[in-house]
Amino acid sequence: MKTSAARSSVPVALADVQVTGGFWAPRVRQIAELVIPHQWDVLNDRIPGAEKSHAVENFRIASGQSHGTFHGMRFQDSDVAKWIEAASYSLHAVRRAETQRAIEEAVDLIAAAQRPDGYVNTFFTIAEPGKRWTDFSHGHELYCAGHLAEAAVAYLEATGSRTLLTVTEKYLAHIESVIGPGEGQVRAYSGHPEIEIALARVYRLTGEEKHLRFLRYLIEERGSQPSFLRKEPTFGYVFKDKWFDLSYHQAQAPIRQQHSAEGHAVRAMYLFASVADLVIETGDQALQRAMDDLWKSVTTARMYVTGGVGSHAHGERLSVDFDLPNHRAYSESCASIGLIFWAHRLLQITPRGSVGDVLERALYNCVLAGISLSGTEYFYSNPLAVAPSEARSREDLKHVATQRQRWFGTACCPTNIARLLASLGSYVYSTNADCAFVHLFVESDAVLRLGDRHVSIRQRTGYPWAESVHLDVNPDRPSDFTLAVRIPTWCYSPTAAVNRTPFRDLRPFVRDGYLFIRRRWTGGETLDIGFSLRAERIAADPRVRADRGRIALQRGPVVYCLEEVDNGENLEDIVLPREAPLQSDHRQDLLGGVVTISGEARRGGSRPANGGLYGPAVASISRTSFTAVPYFAWCNRVPGEMTVWVRES
Amino acid sequence: MKTSAARSSVPVALADVQVTGGFWAPRVRQIAELVIPHQWDVLNDRIPGAEKSHAVENFRIASGQSHGTFHGMRFQDSDVAKWIEAASYSLHAVRRAETQRAIEEAVDLIAAAQRPDGYVNTFFTIAEPGKRWTDFSHGHELYCAGHLAEAAVAYLEATGSRTLLTVTEKYLAHIESVIGPGEGQVRAYSGHPEIEIALARVYRLTGEEKHLRFLRYLIEERGSQPSFLRKEPTFGYVFKDKWFDLSYHQAQAPIRQQHSAEGHAVRAMYLFASVADLVIETGDQALQRAMDDLWKSVTTARMYVTGGVGSHAHGERLSVDFDLPNHRAYSESCASIGLIFWAHRLLQITPRGSVGDVLERALYNCVLAGISLSGTEYFYSNPLAVAPSEARSREDLKHVATQRQRWFGTACCPTNIARLLASLGSYVYSTNADCAFVHLFVESDAVLRLGDRHVSIRQRTGYPWAESVHLDVNPDRPSDFTLAVRIPTWCYSPTAAVNRTPFRDLRPFVRDGYLFIRRRWTGGETLDIGFSLRAERIAADPRVRADRGRIALQRGPVVYCLEEVDNGENLEDIVLPREAPLQSDHRQDLLGGVVTISGEARRGGSRPANGGLYGPAVASISRTSFTAVPYFAWCNRVPGEMTVWVRES
User: Fold this and answer.
1) Please, which of A559, B289, B319, B334 could form a disulfide with B323 given CB 3.0 to 4.6 Å?
2) Are A605 and B542 an interchain contact pair (Cβ–Cβ within 8 Å)?
3) ipTM greater than 0.90, yes or no?
4) Among residues B368, B394, B427, which one ends one of the domains?
5) Is residue A567 part of a domain?
6) pLDDT tens, A451-485?
């Protein structure tokens, strides 16, 4: 692997981190044993009641193995690619023969669908053969190519097979010959970023500089004016309105001149993640400063408390600062996944606890909410409040599902969630020659490389429910290095002990949210971290109109919500008194085992004295109690009202 | 005028009520002297910066006096008709020669544009000559015909001229021959009700039973299944989505089977007003019961505190019960005007104070907010909260104007407001042979007919700012009759005195919200009514999610709002303590003279301890004061934030 100026550490590969227990192992296993086979069945249209996919059949048709017409979105191919990527990751956890065979079948189909010039895209092969590279706004050709390339890298890393990488390299060679700034080339870039992320991965795997050059071209060309996008038939989308302008594509200005995160949220997150890749590979400090502005824009003014991104359903867009409506939130699962990609890369540039906090916020809340506990149903959009009767009757809420769905016409989220969770192990650690960073608390066995040393780390933790993390550290030989453990911001009084000897005062050792422990590790050392986990009231910046007068409940990284099934109807009627104690309970019987938060509450407020629709206000307040469950677990019992932000008094 | 079974009183005609002073006279004069001439200029495209109208020019083209193509909406003709109607009313207040000449010009143009068969519609004459009577969903032919007929009645009543009535009668004869249940007729009804209201007026004026028959046909035919509307090209509108279904046109079921108010708010209000007309004329009790359900549906679950109707911009629709969002409110000025039309008719069937309350609520708040104090700028939509930065950046708020507009592409509201306010005098009183009802408190001189008696009533009042109403009652001869004065619901301890002798206890004399005073009136009597006007906190039904934890301020019929110009930015940060006193101040210097409400408030609530976007909640509350101004006067200084519903603690 190539190292670079701006990278302070490199993630520990998925192959080297086995998730073994705790909160995550059942989920990772569920992905491998249930979700991946189930999604393969959906992609092959074998699940009754699920929305038609046709994604595999499109490849069969494109490769001449079947007859018929293309069905689905222009980016239907990416569902297959993301599934291959997710399935490949899942092999690291469970080497399931059926999964391996299914991946091979998919890979062979893709290879067979590749045109002689390297081109791979079933929509433009079957449905619009004459229109290649004419619709960057919404055609998603580069997007699909990117997912194909990511799948190829994941497949090779999981199985050693180069089949899909060979297809990818041939396709990338074609793409890089067709698109670019040179004479006779199409001077364009992706409407929906994704290939940029893939190019960095292929570059890192192969060391081929041309992919880094093409990545740099795509990022630097973006936003040049006048924009080629304006001349495209689908620019402005079907409604041709201002919400599908250049900023929708993050093309309103060159990336170095963008200081606020704009436009389609998934596009934005993917782009910014790939800008981080370019910073990693080039050490470009000016680009890093622009990216830091964008990070600040998202995480200090345009992100939900769940780590959701994207306030608007129309255009699936980010909004202006502090416009974070709860019922209307789009908050697509994929956007939070993109935010995690971006955070993951930022942590490789400079480990900062606040970045890890955002990563965890998105992971434990928005992303995990996107998949049912059963593993077979999904949310595409993740609003922070749902009132089913209004959701069904309001056009501005037509994107809101009041119960989980088996599949979607645009099915980007299910496979995206699968690939993220299946690869969770690769988010836990990163290393450089002298230091091992612990970013996430995941029960796991890992082997880390620090320069030429190998260090085994066994992590044992009931996190996020329990507040202790135990690490067994075993280097392959006694040596000096640093172990840097992220201390989440929500933890006020962390404790740490090496070989059961507690630190008297941690503060001198904590920098930028990481606890740095430098010592000679001889083998057999233990490190015990203690977090002071407690249920807390969380407030939003007062400029967030939608959350004013409200609090959210959080315990560790987990954000909570009230559901109708626990609290009765009309959740807006519930008020949490500012001083009432909050109680946490471990409930093994509930929602697969969660910690609930409960306490005293009030129901009511002013109501019309005369009982009509409006009337002189009289206070009408009764005592009640409330029970909150983790947001990620909502809507796994009966559908009903839900709210994250609760009125406070 | 024809009397009928279901009508307990008949409104006193505009010609018989001169608005002489107080709150309303300057407004009625402004309509006559400024608004009417200004709107005529707009309709003739003589106002720079106003949206192009072309409405008069369309008639010039259709009548062969000019050349060119049709411009505007399919209902552009109705702007001219509504202007004629408004201008005619205004002549009762100010007999302005220029206005009279302009009306004559408009009337002559319309007469000249009438086709030999009686048909009058410039769109279908100029732009789509072959498509008459093929698009009832959105073609608005019957709607425009209705406005033409209303104009004809108003013009005749103001001037004695039958010119436009002759045009109308010829057109109605054509319509009634083409449309109906008979063989060879088009079995259809209006997509947008309005002709129904007009038919009742023409019937009352002319006594021609055929118009009542046609009105009955239109109302009874509506909602019969299978619906002819489904086969129309524009049914489902351009988006062909569920928000433009049969209920959009109130055609989901026969009116007798409709129990909740659905669909396009203006269509609904106009239809229900005309159902009241049919009840008035027929005494049909089953129909009245259906209509009462609809009234209850609107006024107890689907109406804003401002008397606004229509929660959704998309489809300009009513929503489900209690779904009354404030920022997103559509609350079209025209819908509130329609609600007033309906209430006005209901009061003729059975005087009920609660109906008069709704009428006043809509009049003093939503409708009056729709026109600037200057008389030249308008709101089409009347949200109950505006945050300009969000309104500009959210697609679901694209209907929200953050400042008043000079005119609109769809310009239904300006002339509608003008015709309502210019005819205000006709809403004040109604009579039967034995009783005079005082519905509104408007400084005015009126002559009422009770059977064969004439009774002069001079009303003197500073209402809605002042709490006393003084009436001088002078019958043309001493006689026994009842004076019934509406006592608004918000008034807890009304007082009354005849010839300065106070009633010791009013309660025995108050029934259904009216104070009934029966006596022998000999002439020279005075009646003094005292309302206990005070600033009050108003609460909404707890099921109104958007208003939970909030109160509105009201004083008499006037609903208040907070504006940024008085209270600083971020109005969501302001909290009104439940017990803090409210102070009312008469401010002659402000907004043309208003009463303000002010008092102590708090700013703040919980905020993140660490100052970030989200963090542990710490209380951060400071003392401040607030000033509220009447909602109708908002956005007459500098644009900015506004809110009606304020957080309460």
Assistant:
1) B319
2) yes
3) yes
4) B427
5) yes
6) 999 999 999 999 999 999 999 999 999 999 999 99
